[in-house]
């Protein structure tokens, strides 16, 4: 945000310097006329300029937001396309079948747990990487561990 503000200020200087550079006589006479205006007219001109600038900024901002790719995932998460998904599923199946042949049973832990039990003992170091949210019924903090 700060960089965008500095960029905007830089553009103001460029635009402000453009007219006196290209049309010095016209700029000088325009400034002489502006000096003669009373405060009320100058304020109206300022208000109109601010309004046009804000409308244009909001239009550009909306257009920029609409052009952004809305299909994104947070850092560390990604979609797998069909070929990658099939490969991952193949290896996952091989691993699960190997464990089953060795006598292990399949266990599916819950996706989210209360953090007071999730982040105890050896799980304390996972606190930084845990996505946390509040359980709406109990008001207690819950967490989802990274995969």
Q: Your description of this structure?
A:
The chain is mainly alpha-helical and 147 residues long. The chain folds into 2 domains: 2-67, no CATH class; 82-144, no CATH class. 59% of the residues lie in helices and 7% in strands. It has helices at 2-22, 24-36, 39-67, 82-101, 115-118; strands spanning 113-114, 131-134, 141-144. A 3-stranded antiparallel sheet has the order 1-3-2. A hairpin with a 6-residue loop joins strand 2 and strand 3 (141-144). Helix 1 (2-22) crosses helix 2. It starts with a helix and ends with a strand.
Main attributes of the structure:
147 residues; mainly alpha; three-stranded antiparallel beta sheet
Compact overview of the structure:
The protein has 147 residues and is mainly α.
Task: Explain the layout of strands and helices.
Layout: H1 2-22, H2 24-36, H3 39-67, H4 82-101, E1 113-114, H5 115-118, E2 131-134, E3 141-144
Antiparallel strand pairs: 1-3, 2-3
Helix pairs in contact: 1-2
Spatial strand sequence of the major β-sheet:
1-3-2
Please provide the ordered H/E string of secondary-structure elements: HHHHEHEE
Helical region count? 5
Query: Which value, in Å, is the CA radius of gyration?
Result: 30 Å
Would you identify the regions where 5 or more consecutive residues have pLDDT less than 50?
none
